[in-house]
Protein backbone atom coordinates (compact mmCIF):
# COMPACT_ATOMS: atom_id res chain seq x y z
CA UNK A 1 0.00 0.00 0.00
CA UNK A 2 2.95 2.35 0.58
CA UNK A 3 3.96 2.08 -3.06
CA UNK A 4 3.34 5.35 -4.95
CA UNK A 5 1.32 3.62 -7.68
CA UNK A 6 -1.11 2.21 -5.10
CA UNK A 7 -2.02 5.64 -3.70
CA UNK A 8 -4.89 7.27 -5.54
CA UNK A 9 -7.41 10.00 -4.81
CA UNK A 10 -9.72 8.95 -7.67
CA UNK A 11 -11.95 6.94 -5.31
CA UNK A 12 -14.94 6.81 -7.71
CA UNK A 13 -12.79 6.06 -10.80
CA UNK A 14 -13.72 9.19 -12.74
CA UNK A 15 -10.86 8.43 -15.14
CA UNK A 16 -13.12 5.70 -16.54
CA UNK A 17 -15.16 8.52 -18.14
CA UNK A 18 -12.25 9.06 -20.57
CA UNK A 19 -11.53 6.91 -23.59
CA UNK A 20 -8.31 4.93 -23.79
CA UNK A 21 -6.36 7.57 -25.74
CA UNK A 22 -7.35 10.39 -23.41
CA UNK A 23 -6.58 8.29 -20.36
CA UNK A 24 -3.16 7.48 -21.76
CA UNK A 25 -2.46 11.20 -22.25
CA UNK A 26 -3.57 11.93 -18.68
CA UNK A 27 -1.17 9.27 -17.44
CA UNK A 28 1.68 10.82 -19.45
CA UNK A 29 0.96 14.12 -17.73
CA UNK A 30 0.99 12.34 -14.37
CA UNK A 31 4.34 10.73 -15.14
CA UNK A 32 5.81 14.05 -16.26
CA UNK A 33 4.73 15.75 -13.04
CA UNK A 34 6.05 12.91 -10.84
CA UNK A 35 9.37 12.42 -12.60
CA UNK A 36 10.33 15.89 -13.79
CA UNK A 37 8.44 18.43 -11.70
CA UNK A 38 8.16 16.99 -8.19
CA UNK A 39 11.94 16.44 -7.71
CA UNK A 40 12.74 20.12 -8.39
CA UNK A 41 9.63 22.14 -7.61
CA UNK A 42 10.35 22.88 -3.94
CA UNK A 43 13.64 24.47 -4.90
CA UNK A 44 11.97 26.72 -7.47
CA UNK A 45 9.12 27.52 -5.05
CA UNK A 46 11.64 28.60 -2.42
CA UNK A 47 13.48 30.84 -4.88
CA UNK A 48 10.23 32.12 -6.44
CA UNK A 49 11.55 31.21 -9.89
CA UNK A 50 9.95 29.45 -12.85
CA UNK A 51 11.55 26.23 -14.21
CA UNK A 52 11.88 27.38 -17.81
CA UNK A 53 13.91 24.29 -18.67
CA UNK A 54 10.72 22.21 -18.34
CA UNK A 55 8.81 24.04 -21.10
CA UNK A 56 10.16 21.83 -23.95
CA UNK A 57 9.02 18.70 -22.11
CA UNK A 58 5.63 20.27 -21.46
CA UNK A 59 5.39 21.12 -25.14
CA UNK A 60 6.02 17.47 -26.04
CA UNK A 61 2.91 16.51 -24.06
CA UNK A 62 0.79 18.54 -26.49
CA UNK A 63 -1.62 19.82 -23.84
CA UNK A 64 -1.67 23.56 -24.61
CA UNK A 65 -5.19 24.44 -25.71
CA UNK A 66 -6.34 20.83 -25.34
CA UNK A 67 -10.01 21.55 -26.10
CA UNK A 68 -9.42 23.99 -28.97
CA UNK A 69 -10.53 22.65 -32.34
CA UNK A 70 -7.86 22.93 -35.05
CA UNK A 71 -4.82 25.20 -35.25
CA UNK A 72 -2.49 22.45 -34.08
CA UNK A 73 -4.53 21.71 -30.95
CA UNK A 74 -5.97 18.35 -29.95
CA UNK A 75 -9.64 19.36 -30.03
CA UNK A 76 -10.45 17.02 -27.16
CA UNK A 77 -13.26 17.24 -24.61
CA UNK A 78 -13.53 19.80 -21.80
CA UNK A 79 -13.50 16.78 -19.49
CA UNK A 80 -9.99 15.81 -20.58
CA UNK A 81 -8.92 19.45 -20.48
CA UNK A 82 -10.18 19.75 -16.91
CA UNK A 83 -8.62 16.50 -15.77
CA UNK A 84 -5.28 17.62 -17.18
CA UNK A 85 -5.56 20.87 -15.21
CA UNK A 86 -6.32 18.76 -12.15
CA UNK A 87 -3.36 16.45 -12.78
CA UNK A 88 -0.98 19.37 -13.23
CA UNK A 89 -2.23 20.98 -10.03
CA UNK A 90 -1.94 17.71 -8.13
CA UNK A 91 1.76 17.80 -8.96
CA UNK A 92 2.12 21.54 -8.45
CA UNK A 93 -0.55 24.29 -8.55
CA UNK A 94 1.89 26.82 -10.03
CA UNK A 95 2.54 24.66 -13.09
CA UNK A 96 -1.22 24.24 -13.55
CA UNK A 97 -1.68 28.01 -13.26
CA UNK A 98 1.06 28.65 -15.82
CA UNK A 99 -0.66 26.32 -18.29
CA UNK A 100 -4.09 27.74 -17.48
CA UNK A 101 -2.90 31.24 -18.33
CA UNK A 102 -1.10 30.19 -21.50
CA UNK A 103 -3.36 27.46 -22.89
CA UNK A 104 -6.61 28.73 -21.38
CA UNK A 105 -6.82 32.49 -20.98
CA UNK A 106 -4.33 33.60 -23.66
CA UNK A 107 -5.03 30.97 -26.32
CA UNK A 108 -8.73 31.08 -25.43
CA UNK A 109 -8.86 34.83 -26.04
CA UNK A 110 -7.42 34.42 -29.51
CA UNK A 111 -9.61 31.39 -30.27
CA UNK A 112 -12.86 33.03 -29.14
CA UNK A 113 -12.14 36.63 -30.10
CA UNK A 114 -9.62 36.53 -32.94
CA UNK A 115 -10.15 36.56 -36.68
CA UNK A 116 -9.34 33.48 -38.73
CA UNK A 117 -6.08 35.10 -39.81
CA UNK A 118 -5.13 35.83 -36.20
CA UNK A 119 -5.89 32.27 -35.11
CA UNK A 120 -3.71 30.90 -37.91
CA UNK A 121 -0.97 33.40 -37.11
CA UNK A 122 -0.62 32.68 -33.38
CA UNK A 123 -2.40 29.53 -32.17
CA UNK A 124 -0.27 26.81 -33.85
CA UNK A 125 2.95 28.26 -32.41
CA UNK A 126 1.27 28.65 -29.01
CA UNK A 127 0.07 25.03 -29.17
CA UNK A 128 3.70 23.98 -29.76
CA UNK A 129 4.67 26.36 -26.91
CA UNK A 130 7.09 28.15 -29.18
CA UNK A 131 5.19 31.30 -28.21
CA UNK A 132 4.04 31.71 -24.60
CA UNK A 133 0.97 33.77 -23.76
CA UNK A 134 -0.29 35.91 -20.87
CA UNK A 135 -3.64 37.55 -20.11
CA UNK A 136 -3.87 41.12 -18.85
CA UNK A 137 -7.22 42.10 -17.34
CA UNK A 138 -6.85 42.79 -13.60
CA UNK A 139 -5.61 46.24 -12.64
CA UNK A 140 -4.03 47.70 -9.47
CA UNK A 141 -7.34 49.27 -8.39
CA UNK A 142 -9.78 46.97 -10.16
CA UNK A 143 -10.16 43.23 -9.69
CA UNK A 144 -13.69 42.05 -9.00
CA UNK A 145 -15.16 45.27 -10.41
CA UNK A 146 -13.00 45.36 -13.52
CA UNK A 147 -16.03 45.04 -15.84
CA UNK A 148 -17.22 48.46 -14.70
CA UNK A 149 -13.98 50.05 -13.60
CA UNK A 150 -11.49 49.15 -16.33
CA UNK A 151 -9.09 52.11 -16.50
CA UNK A 152 -6.59 50.97 -19.12
CA UNK A 153 -7.45 52.90 -22.27
CA UNK A 154 -6.99 52.54 -26.00
CA UNK A 155 -7.40 55.11 -28.73
CA UNK A 156 -7.25 54.77 -32.48
CA UNK A 157 -4.42 56.59 -34.22
CA UNK A 158 -4.36 55.89 -37.95
CA UNK A 159 -3.58 52.23 -38.55
CA UNK A 160 -2.60 51.69 -34.92
CA UNK A 161 -3.98 51.84 -31.41
CA UNK A 162 -2.30 53.54 -28.46
CA UNK A 163 -2.64 51.82 -25.06
CA UNK A 164 -2.13 53.49 -21.69
CA UNK A 165 -2.65 52.12 -18.20
CA UNK A 166 -1.56 49.45 -15.73
CA UNK A 167 -2.26 45.77 -15.10
CA UNK A 168 -1.46 43.75 -11.99
CA UNK A 169 -1.15 40.06 -11.08
CA UNK A 170 -0.55 39.09 -14.70
CA UNK A 171 0.88 35.56 -14.75
CA UNK A 172 3.66 34.77 -17.26
CA UNK A 173 3.88 38.42 -18.32
CA UNK A 174 7.58 38.90 -17.51
CA UNK A 175 8.60 36.32 -20.12
CA UNK A 176 5.53 35.79 -22.35
CA UNK A 177 5.90 36.43 -26.06
CA UNK A 178 2.28 37.58 -26.41
CA UNK A 179 0.23 39.40 -23.78
CA UNK A 180 -3.52 39.83 -24.21
CA UNK A 181 -4.43 43.32 -22.98
CA UNK A 182 -8.02 44.42 -22.40
CA UNK A 183 -8.62 48.17 -22.63
CA UNK A 184 -11.51 50.64 -22.86
CA UNK A 185 -11.85 52.68 -26.07
CA UNK A 186 -11.79 56.35 -25.10
CA UNK A 187 -14.19 57.23 -27.95
CA UNK A 188 -16.80 54.47 -27.73
CA UNK A 189 -16.34 53.15 -24.15
CA UNK A 190 -16.25 49.63 -25.58
CA UNK A 191 -13.83 47.08 -24.09
CA UNK A 192 -11.43 45.80 -26.74
CA UNK A 193 -8.72 43.18 -26.74
CA UNK A 194 -5.18 43.48 -28.10
CA UNK A 195 -2.23 41.15 -28.57
CA UNK A 196 0.85 43.02 -27.36
CA UNK A 197 4.15 41.47 -28.33
CA UNK A 198 6.98 41.34 -25.80
CA UNK A 199 9.48 44.14 -26.40
CA UNK A 200 6.93 46.62 -27.74
CA UNK A 201 8.10 50.15 -26.77
CA UNK A 202 6.27 51.51 -23.73
CA UNK A 203 5.44 48.03 -22.37
CA UNK A 204 7.14 47.06 -19.13
CA UNK A 205 6.45 44.07 -16.87
CA UNK A 206 7.97 43.95 -13.39
CA UNK A 207 7.77 40.77 -11.33
CA UNK A 208 5.80 40.99 -8.07
CA UNK A 209 7.99 40.03 -5.13
CA UNK A 210 7.39 38.42 -1.73
CA UNK A 211 4.30 36.36 -2.54
CA UNK A 212 3.33 33.64 -0.08
CA UNK A 213 1.41 31.59 -2.67
CA UNK A 214 2.04 30.28 -6.19
CA UNK A 215 5.60 31.49 -5.84
CA UNK A 216 6.68 29.68 -9.02
CA UNK A 217 4.19 31.70 -11.10
CA UNK A 218 5.76 34.90 -12.35
CA UNK A 219 3.07 37.52 -11.70
CA UNK A 220 3.79 40.95 -13.11
CA UNK A 221 2.79 44.55 -12.65
CA UNK A 222 2.49 45.84 -16.22
CA UNK A 223 2.81 49.48 -17.23
CA UNK A 224 1.53 50.57 -20.65
CA UNK A 225 2.86 54.01 -21.55
CA UNK A 226 1.84 54.98 -25.07
CA UNK A 227 2.13 51.40 -26.31
CA UNK A 228 1.44 51.39 -30.04
CA UNK A 229 -0.30 48.25 -31.35
CA UNK A 230 -1.15 47.74 -35.02
CA UNK A 231 -4.80 47.24 -35.98
CA UNK A 232 -3.90 43.74 -37.13
CA UNK A 233 -3.14 42.89 -33.48
CA UNK A 234 -6.56 44.00 -32.23
CA UNK A 235 -8.73 40.95 -31.55
CA UNK A 236 -11.25 41.39 -34.33
CA UNK A 237 -14.20 39.65 -32.67
CA UNK A 238 -13.91 41.37 -29.27
CA UNK A 239 -16.41 44.23 -29.19
CA UNK A 240 -17.37 44.53 -25.51
CA UNK A 241 -16.72 43.05 -22.07
CA UNK A 242 -19.16 40.32 -23.05
CA UNK A 243 -16.43 38.66 -25.09
CA UNK A 244 -13.98 39.02 -22.20
CA UNK A 245 -16.52 37.29 -19.98
CA UNK A 246 -16.83 34.46 -22.53
CA UNK A 247 -13.13 33.73 -22.08
CA UNK A 248 -13.41 33.81 -18.29
CA UNK A 249 -16.42 31.50 -18.35
CA UNK A 250 -14.50 29.00 -20.46
CA UNK A 251 -11.54 28.95 -18.06
CA UNK A 252 -13.40 29.16 -14.72
CA UNK A 253 -14.18 25.45 -14.92
CA UNK A 254 -10.45 24.83 -15.24
CA UNK A 255 -9.82 26.72 -12.00
CA UNK A 256 -12.33 24.47 -10.22
CA UNK A 257 -10.48 21.43 -11.58
CA UNK A 258 -7.19 22.95 -10.40
CA UNK A 259 -8.64 23.29 -6.91
CA UNK A 260 -9.47 19.58 -6.97
CA UNK A 261 -5.91 18.85 -8.06
CA UNK A 262 -4.47 20.93 -5.23
CA UNK A 263 -6.63 18.97 -2.79
CA UNK A 264 -5.58 15.66 -4.33
CA UNK A 265 -1.90 16.51 -4.13
CA UNK A 266 -2.12 17.41 -0.45
CA UNK A 267 -4.20 14.29 0.32
CA UNK A 268 -1.89 11.87 -1.47
CA UNK A 269 1.22 13.30 0.21
CA UNK A 270 -0.55 13.13 3.58
CA UNK A 271 -1.63 9.53 3.02
CA UNK A 272 1.87 8.53 1.96
CA UNK A 273 3.27 10.21 5.06
CA UNK A 274 0.72 8.52 7.32
CA UNK A 275 1.58 5.09 5.93
CA UNK A 276 5.23 5.53 6.84
CA UNK A 277 5.00 7.49 10.10
CA UNK A 278 4.99 5.66 13.45
CA UNK A 279 3.98 7.09 16.82
CA UNK A 280 3.19 5.31 20.10
CA UNK A 281 4.67 2.15 18.63
CA UNK A 282 2.40 1.81 15.60
CA UNK A 283 1.74 3.37 12.15
CA UNK A 284 -0.39 6.48 12.56
CA UNK A 285 -2.81 5.23 9.87
CA UNK A 286 -4.06 2.79 12.49
CA UNK A 287 -5.38 5.64 14.63
CA UNK A 288 -9.06 6.53 14.33
CA UNK A 289 -8.49 10.30 14.21
CA UNK A 290 -6.02 9.96 11.34
CA UNK A 291 -8.45 7.84 9.34
CA UNK A 292 -11.18 10.39 10.09
CA UNK A 293 -9.06 13.16 8.57
CA UNK A 294 -8.25 11.05 5.52
CA UNK A 295 -11.93 10.27 4.91
CA UNK A 296 -12.94 13.93 5.31
CA UNK A 297 -10.34 14.89 2.72
CA UNK A 298 -11.39 12.14 0.35
CA UNK A 299 -15.04 13.14 0.66
CA UNK A 300 -14.25 16.73 -0.27
CA UNK A 301 -12.13 15.60 -3.20
CA UNK A 302 -14.69 13.15 -4.53
CA UNK A 303 -17.63 15.55 -4.27
CA UNK A 304 -15.66 18.34 -5.95
CA UNK A 305 -14.33 16.12 -8.74
CA UNK A 306 -17.81 14.76 -9.46
CA UNK A 307 -19.18 18.31 -9.67
CA UNK A 308 -16.38 19.29 -12.06
CA UNK A 309 -16.96 16.22 -14.23
CA UNK A 310 -20.63 17.10 -14.65
CA UNK A 311 -19.72 20.73 -15.35
CA UNK A 312 -17.32 19.61 -18.08
CA UNK A 313 -20.05 17.50 -19.68
CA UNK A 314 -22.34 20.54 -19.69
CA UNK A 315 -19.54 22.64 -21.15
CA UNK A 316 -18.92 20.10 -23.91
CA UNK A 317 -22.64 20.14 -24.76
CA UNK A 318 -22.65 23.95 -24.92
CA UNK A 319 -25.01 24.13 -21.94
CA UNK A 320 -22.75 25.42 -19.16
CA UNK A 321 -23.97 28.68 -17.61
CA UNK A 322 -22.12 31.39 -15.72
CA UNK A 323 -23.91 30.34 -12.55
CA UNK A 324 -22.87 26.70 -12.90
CA UNK A 325 -19.22 27.63 -13.50
CA UNK A 326 -19.28 30.04 -10.57
CA UNK A 327 -20.79 27.47 -8.19
CA UNK A 328 -18.07 24.98 -9.07
CA UNK A 329 -15.31 27.54 -8.60
CA UNK A 330 -16.67 28.72 -5.25
CA UNK A 331 -17.48 25.24 -3.89
CA UNK A 332 -14.32 23.47 -4.99
CA UNK A 333 -12.01 26.18 -3.67
CA UNK A 334 -13.79 26.20 -0.30
CA UNK A 335 -13.44 22.44 -0.02
CA UNK A 336 -9.81 22.72 -1.17
CA UNK A 337 -9.02 25.09 1.69
CA UNK A 338 -10.45 22.60 4.19
CA UNK A 339 -8.68 19.65 2.62
CA UNK A 340 -5.18 21.09 2.51
CA UNK A 341 -5.59 22.25 6.11
CA UNK A 342 -6.53 18.76 7.23
CA UNK A 343 -3.55 17.34 5.33
CA UNK A 344 -1.28 19.71 7.21
CA UNK A 345 -2.99 18.81 10.49
CA UNK A 346 -2.46 15.10 9.90
CA UNK A 347 1.28 15.67 9.57
CA UNK A 348 1.58 17.68 12.76
CA UNK A 349 4.64 19.92 12.88
CA UNK A 350 6.19 18.09 9.93
CA UNK A 351 3.42 19.53 7.77
CA UNK A 352 5.10 22.92 7.69
CA UNK A 353 8.34 21.52 6.29
CA UNK A 354 8.59 22.06 2.56
CA UNK A 355 10.29 18.68 2.11
CA UNK A 356 6.92 17.07 2.91
CA UNK A 357 5.22 19.14 0.16
CA UNK A 358 1.89 19.74 1.91
CA UNK A 359 2.88 23.19 3.16
CA UNK A 360 3.28 24.28 -0.46
CA UNK A 361 -0.30 23.22 -1.23
CA UNK A 362 -1.58 25.03 1.87
CA UNK A 363 0.04 28.26 0.70
CA UNK A 364 -0.86 27.88 -2.96
CA UNK A 365 -4.50 27.17 -2.11
CA UNK A 366 -4.84 30.76 -0.92
CA UNK A 367 -4.21 32.09 -4.41
CA UNK A 368 -6.49 29.59 -6.15
CA UNK A 369 -9.21 30.52 -3.65
CA UNK A 370 -9.14 34.14 -4.86
CA UNK A 371 -8.14 34.32 -8.52
CA UNK A 372 -10.59 34.25 -11.45
CA UNK A 373 -13.42 35.37 -9.20
CA UNK A 374 -13.39 35.49 -5.41
CA UNK A 375 -15.74 33.25 -3.44
CA UNK A 376 -17.90 36.27 -2.61
CA UNK A 377 -18.33 37.39 -6.23
CA UNK A 378 -19.00 33.88 -7.49
CA UNK A 379 -21.53 33.43 -4.68
CA UNK A 380 -23.37 36.56 -5.80
CA UNK A 381 -23.43 35.32 -9.40
CA UNK A 382 -25.02 32.05 -8.25
CA UNK A 383 -27.33 33.91 -5.87
CA UNK A 384 -28.57 36.10 -8.70
CA UNK A 385 -29.26 32.99 -10.74
CA UNK A 386 -31.28 31.20 -8.08
CA UNK A 387 -33.23 34.22 -6.77
CA UNK A 388 -33.58 36.39 -9.86
CA UNK A 389 -32.32 39.35 -7.81
CA UNK A 390 -28.86 40.86 -8.06
CA UNK A 391 -27.12 41.70 -4.80
CA UNK A 392 -23.99 42.94 -6.58
CA UNK A 393 -23.47 46.59 -5.72
Automatic annotation (TrEMBL):
The prosthetic group or cofactor this protein requires is:
FAD
Q: Which residues form the Acyl-CoA dehydrogenase/oxidase N-terminal domain?
A: 20-130
* InterPro entries xrefs: ACX4-like, Acyl-CoA_DH_CS, Acyl-CoA_Oxase/DH_mid-dom, Acyl-CoA_Oxase/DH_mid-dom_sf, AcylCo_DH-like_C, AcylCo_DH/oxidase_C, AcylCoA_DH/ox_N, AcylCoA_DH/ox_N_sf
What GO molecular function annotations does the UniProt record carry, in alphabetical order? acyl-CoA dehydrogenase activity; flavin adenine dinucleotide binding
Q: Name the domain of life this protein comes from.
A: Bacteria
Q: Which residues form the Acyl-CoA oxidase/dehydrogenase middle domain?
A: 134-225
Q: Where are the transmembrane segments?
A: none
The answer to whether UniProt assigns keyword Methyltransferase to this entry is no
Keywords, sorted A to Z: FAD, Flavoprotein, Oxidoreductase
Pfam family for this entry, one: Acyl-CoA_dh_1
Q: Could you tell me the Gene Ontology terms of the biological process aspect for this record?
A: fatty acid beta-oxidation
Q: Where is the Acyl-CoA dehydrogenase/oxidase C-terminal domain?
A: 247-386
Q: Which Gene3D superfamilies match?
A: Acyl-CoA dehydrogenase/oxidase, N-terminal domain (1.10.540.10), Butyryl-CoA Dehydrogenase, subunit A, domain 2 (2.40.110.10), Butyryl-CoA Dehydrogenase, subunit A, domain 3 (1.20.140.10)
The Swiss-Prot or TrEMBL record describes its family as follows: Belongs to the acyl-CoA dehydrogenase family.
This protein is called Acyl-CoA dehydrogenase
What organism does the record attribute this protein to? Blastococcus saxobsidens (strain DD2)
